[in-house]
Amino acid sequence: MSISDRNYDIRLSSGSRINPLVVLIALNMIIFVVLAFFKALTYVRFPEGSDVTSYFNQNILSLFSLSASPQSLLSHPWTILSSAFVYTAIWPLITNMLWLWLFGYVFMDITGNRKIIPVFIYGTLLGSLAYILAGNLIPSLRVQSEHLYLFGAGPAILAIAIAATTICPNHKLFTMLNGGISLWIITVLFLTLYLATIPANNPAVHIAHLGGGIAGFLFIFLLRKGFDGSEWMSNLYDRFINMFNPDRTKAKTNLSKNTLYYKSSSVSPYKKTPTITQQKLDEILDKINQRGGFEKLTEEEKEFLKRASKEDLQGR
Question: Domain ends where: 231, 256, 285?
Fold first, then answer.
């Protein structure tokens, strides 16, 4: 993993890092708990026998779920993204998070940490777009567009599944089972089970999942052509995080300057140079964060960072 890759990880003050896959799963679970809490409050507010579920769906859930109705889209445009984190029952949440963990783990194992969240977002966006178009262009669905909603991370999960399968369809899982099961077989099983459980009263959801799958395929197709659709999101994230961490910005600036004027010929041929390791590099970056910047490092640590930066640039 390069220095720039490590910047994508979310660092706490202690220097620990959070896996982006864990972030996605945690967001889904936290939002589910929050919505369940508001639903419980709704039950407390209304007398026994009231249709609490209908009230909750119309007045609270609709604020975050995606409707194909143009009026609803104009008043709630954020639902194009927020719908991916909405669940009304615990079982769909658990099954979706298990699938997300499975395909997300494989995808990150192949491509690294910087691409999974962008693919999740692209899958959500294209799935939402497909749902909106289907609800407005297909006559039989247009009638229902104001009463039916899209929610859940299905299109985004399918985007990650298709992306991972497109890269490495024969990647082996569960290797203890007679050598393992190919990823493409798991993906077909996922599609079969998932599409079979989608309610028949909202066929536009199938089209939304198709949009998510197309997003995953297009991401990898364009990546192979030399266009990385995740790069602009990663750069935006880096700039945003560095706004709140001036020490890291200063350290990166100093590192860049020192690397520019550093001459390898000035190093003695008999000088002992430590091997660049992930653990050592993390320790130095954490020291920069905790002790006030690049200038707090020893000369040996500064030299280590120069070498790591140079190898990172040469490896690109």
Answer: 231
**262 and 206 belong to one structural domain:** no
**What does 127-146 look like in DSSP terms, one character per residue?**
HHHHHHHHHHHSHHHHTTTT
Residue pLDDT, tens place only, 238-274? 787 777 666 655 555 554 545 444 444 444 444 455 5
pTM: 0.70
8 domain-assigned: no
Q: What is the CA radius of gyration of the chain?
A: 24
Per residue in 71-96, pLDDT (tens digit) is 888 999 999 999 999 998 899 999 99
- Same domain, residue pair 95 and 25: yes
- List Cβ neighbours of 277 (8 Å cut-off, separation of 6 or more): none
Angle at 31 between CA 134 and CA 42, to 5 degrees: 95
Q: Are residues 33 and 146 in the same domain?
A: yes
Q: How many CB atoms lie within 10 A of CB 109?
A: 11
Q: With left for phi above 0 and alpha for psi between -120 and 50, is residue 292 left, alpha or beta? A: left
Give me the domain span that covers residue 117: 19-231
Angle at 68 (CA atoms; ends 116, 200), nearest 5 degrees: 85
Residues 6+ apart with CB under 8 A from 269: none
Domain at 144, CATH number? 1.20.1540.10
